[in-house]
Design brief:
The chain has 509 residues and is mainly alpha-helical. The chain has 23 helices and five strands. The strands form two sheets. Strands 2-1-5 form a three-stranded antiparallel sheet, with no helix packed on it. Strands 3-4 form a two-stranded antiparallel ribbon. The structure holds zinc ion (2 copies).
Length: 509
Amino acid sequence: MDYCKYHPLDGATYACRACNSRQCDKCVDDAHRAAHCFVCGAVLESLGSANTVEPFWRRLKEAFKYPVNANSMSLIVITAIISVLAALMPFLWILSLAMYLFAAGSLMKYSFTCLERTAMGEMKAPDVMDAYSGGIKLLLQLVLMTVVLTVLVGAAYYYLGAALGGLLGFIAVFSYPAILIRFAQTENMLEAMNPFAAIALMAAIGLPYGLLIVFMLIMMTSVGVLHEWIGAVFPAMSYLLQSIVSNYYTVVMFHLMGYMLFQYQEQLGYSARSDEDDEGSQRSEQERLSAKIEVMLKEGDYEQLVKLYYHAFKQYPNEPLFFDKFFDLLYACKKTALMEDYGLTYLEFLNRRKRFDKLTPTFKQILFVAPDYLPDSPIMRVQLATLLKQQGDSKLAVKLLNGIHKLYPEFSGLPDAYNLLADILTEIPNMQLQADKCRQMAVQLKRKADERQAALVLQQEQKRVTEAQAHHKPTGVKAVRKGGPPSGTTISGLTLELVPLEPVAEKPD
Ligand SMILES: [Zn+2]
Ligand SMILES: [Zn+2]
């Protein structure tokens, strides 16, 4: 059994020849009809479900442990005792036969339930009482099939001679498990007894079916050998022991037959996992992208990973899964440069999601990875500074707002930003002078902004008039555009050099 490269505990269902790797259902690109490799994009080879199930000969140890539990063992022993008692009462042959049939029937029914449950993927022996809830019809059919097979072989022996009868007997033994498996699958006696169906089943399973038969023969022989050994010393004891061992082997055999049905479910046109599989098989685009990201992360392909994440951010701007995971990844791996790029994207995402409580803690986390980081957005800076001021972290708030008019001369919230800065500085000792300067600057900025606004309105008015004139005389001279106040330079005359905060803070009051 092969395992998924990315999920070492899950069986692989696909293989990529190009990458020489094996993947499970989750780790493949199933957007198209044929699954593709997330890493190289090649079409994958399906390994089938047989691969996800261990072959039965690797599970022999577990198979022998299967009936070892108080429940199953008591049934095995009790039916053995009943059949021994039946053998000891030849004088009451009807009672003897009834007891024998009861014992054999009980065991058969239980074993068959084991087969069915194992075929459904249940690897624990069923409760004995559970096994008898199904009714007697199934049991009668089972007995009938066994009897028909025996009578057929017996008749062949009698009428066609030892050679042909022996051959038919061999064929009957060889196909008996196939008939049982088929019966478990269809619950139809005629269908199960159809020799073509049995042949088709054997062909589908192939060599492992032969191994199962060999295994069955070994078990049968071992019961005989056991009888030879002990029978010489304790004849009665031997019969009981032999009966117990053969009952035990019967349960193991039926469990193995069920296991075979489970293992070759796909080839046998039957699927034990189909119910759960069908629901999960149609993944959404988002789940697929998420799976691809997982694979790229485990591959260590960070370039591709970052690309995928940014694609996800664009595609699903409100999906916390992608944003949070990428942030956690960058934080955990201390990717300074990537964090500097991503910081604002994540802060704005938190804003969109109204997670204002997380803004400043996240900002501090970013600073831990990228100490020089400042978000490249005046709105975000003001927002963070406002929050930091409330939390009493004036130093960081000042750092966010300092020089903001140089960086973002076009920012319309500049006067408010400087009023905020002034308020923050007021709270810091020995910063009164700076605070006053800031307030003056806010006033100046406000005036400049108003002037600019007025100029803009004027300009628009002029443009409108010009257009109206142009409408009247299309060949008219183009109006000379006066242009608004040169952008950026308007405020450049103003400078505010803030005194570094550290020495101030150290000064005693
Ligand atoms: Zn996987
Ligand atoms: Zn590949």
